[in-house]
Amino acid sequence: MPTYGFICSQCEKDFEVFRPMSEYEKPADCPSCGKSAKKVYARSGPPIVKDGTPRYHKQ
Q1: How far apart are CA 55 and CA 6, in angstroms?
Q2: DSSP summary character for residue 4
Q3: Which domain holds residue 51?
Q4: Element (H, E) at 53
Q5: How many domains is the chain partitioned into structurally?
């Protein structure tokens, strides 16, 4: 199940939502202010670790 990253259009807080691919298009509300947030990336699977630093594949 992928993790989707969002940025709030109101308070600019970034957060992640873990949801099934069938809910890809579903909007997310900011946990801080409750306003609609813009999806910025989707990540599935474990991070790629290079030189001790985790990196995620961004779509």
Answers
A1: 17
A2: E
A3: 3-55
A4: strand 53-55
A5: 1
Give me the pLDDT at residue 59, please.
43
The answer to whether residues 49 and 57 touch, using CB atoms and an 8 Å cutoff, is no
Per-residue pLDDT of the chain (59 residues; tens, 9 = 90+): 788 889 998 998 989 898 888 988 888 999 999 999 988 877 666 555 556 655 555 54
Residue 19 token pair: 């949801």
- Whole-angstrom Cα distance, residue 14 to residue 45? 20
Residue type, position 47, single letter: P
Residue 8 · residue 32 · CB < 8 Å: yes
Q: Which amino acid is at 16?
A: E
Distances (CA, A) of 2 to 37, 44, 58: 17, 4, 11
